[in-house]
Design goal:
- The chain has one domain (6-136): RNA polymerase II/Efflux pump adaptor protein, barrel-sandwich hybrid domain (OB fold (Dihydrolipoamide Acetyltransferase, E2P), Beta Barrel), CATH 2.40.50.100.
- 20% of the residues lie in helices and 33% in strands.
- It contains five helices and eleven strands.
- It has helices spanning 40-46, 93-96, 100-103, 120-123, 128-136, and strands spanning 6-7, 10-11, 17-18, 23-27, 33-38, 49-52, 60-61, 66-72, 76-80, 85-90, 112-116.
- The strands form three sheets. Strands 3-4-5-11-10-7 form a six-stranded antiparallel β-sheet. A three-stranded antiparallel β-sheet has the order 6-8-9.
- Strand 4 (23-27) and strand 5 form a beta hairpin.
């Protein structure tokens, strides 16, 4: 049996929301700005990350659109916007330290923040239990 908050020993923080494309979304209170990154499950599947395409602040994105790419030793993967809005800030550290996606996916490995244009989209994302059920089906 897995400990609460883990998928096959992986961390699935209960306070976050998740997309079926393996992005995590953090919202502080009722803020319309959310932080976005890839899950521990995603970074583990990718292997060692060697490059992150940093999106441009000010870019409008629609939920489901690709807005970034992550290149690893195994593959190149698109990163999809889990919500619609405008990219408010980006994590410039990833240009020189893409490995932060591997070493700290829920902390220093965040990719960007998005100012949501449709905050109701946040509620439609997966909670930790639903994300855990999704990824357990992949094992």
């Amino acid at each position: 049996m897995l400990a609460a908050g883990t998928v096959a020993g992986m961390n699935v923080p209960p306070e976050l929301r998740y997309s079926s494309d393996h992005e995590w979304i953090r919202r502080d209170g009722d803020s319309t700005t959310v932080s976005i990154g890839i899950t521990e499950y995603a970074q583990d599947s990718l292997g060692d990350v060697v490059f992150v395409e940093i999106p441009d602040a000010g870019t409008a994105v629609a939920a489901g659109d690709s807005f970034s790419e992550v290149e690893s030793t195994k593959s190149v993967s698109d990163i999809y916007a889990p919500v619609s809005g405008t990219i408010a800030a980006v994590n410039d550290q990833l240009e020189d330290r893409p490995e932060l996606l591997n070493s700290d996916p829920y902390g220093e490995g965040w990719i960007c923040t998005i100012e949501m244009s449709s905050p109701d989209e946040f509620g439609a994302l997966l909670d930790a239990d639903a994300y855990r059920a999704l990824t357990e089906g992949d094992e």
